[in-house]
Amino acid sequence: MRIERLPLNALRAFAEAAREESFKLAASRLGVTPGAVSRQVKQLEDRLGILLFERHANGVCLNDAGRLLADDIDAGLERIAAGVRAAGERSRSAATLTLSAPPSFTQLWLLPRLAEFESMEGHVEISLDASQALTMPTWQGDGARLAIRYGRGPWPGVRSQHLFGDELFPVCAPSLLSYGPRLSEPADLVNHTLLEVAWCSRQSEAFPGWREWLDAAGVRDIATPIQRRYSLFGLALDQTIAGRGVMLASHPIVADRLASGVLVRPFGADYVLESPFTYELILPITGGAPPTAQRFIDWLIEEARQFCRDQQ
């Protein structure tokens, strides 16, 4: 068997289903039906001659073979991404754009929207670096190296363009409201596992956590609930979607999941904690942007404005 002859759509469907351990969530991310994901995964299993998932009445989960293949595919995608970046840097005939952005923001906010810009600018080569490190932005001929950062200014040595602020509030899976302990007011959180992100800004300022939110909500006299901390929003989000706790969420990170109904806000629009950090587009402090880079900047700023309008 030659791996290059495997159907790419089936590999893509499997990769998404493996990441979510759900055909339904994978279908939502791919814009197809759960049945289509199931058929593509079955096609891949038939081609390989092995089962990759255990099927149960209430869903699916990866087996050992599936987990190994998922790890190999992720490693392959990393190599492909590195190859694309290298090809983009070698190219002199097409416009190039390198964008560095925080991993969870890249995956959960930027990527679902980036296809629109790519459809308008088919000739541009976009390289994404999902990183927290601040790479100095530059204009490079007809290309550019830019960054999106989450934190508090000032940003020395660069120019920053404000995208939007952030607010924090609890989210959970709908199933937790139906089958878990009561969750109708903040004091009820004492009976739930609380998930939060342990993260520090470049100035070593800690990201606000449950303690700050509970204080702001006026809940100061309850026992400390069980808490689990994660280094990335995406990790906490996966656990929240699986119904394993209530997450203190960053609004841009969970906005699309709230819109789709995968997550809900147990207390509605009440009890919001404003974050001291903002999302900023980081640009070179001098010089003018190449045409393609300027169109990307204009597009991104308009996407940020539209996002803010949609959340009002």
UniProtKB/TrEMBL annotation:
The HTH lysR-type domain covers 6-63
Q: Please verify whether the record's keywords include Transcription regulation.
A: yes
CDD domains in alphabetical order: PBP2_GcdR_TrpI_HvrB_AmpR_like (cd08432)
Q: A single Pfam family, by name? A: LysR_substrate
User: Could you tell me which InterPro entries the record lists for this protein?
Assistant: LysR-type_TF_proteobact-type (IPR058163), LysR_HTH_N (IPR000847), LysR_subst-bd (IPR005119), WH-like_DNA-bd_sf (IPR036388), WH_DNA-bd_sf (IPR036390)
Q: Give the transmembrane region(s).
A: none
Which UniProt keyword terms apply here?
DNA-binding, Transcription, Transcription regulation
Superkingdom, natural source: Bacteria
Q: Which family does it belong to?
A: Belongs to the LysR transcriptional regulatory family.
Q: What is this protein called?
A: LysR family transcriptional regulator
- What are the leading ranks of the lineage? Bacteria, Pseudomonadati, Pseudomonadota, Gammaproteobacteria, Oceanospirillales
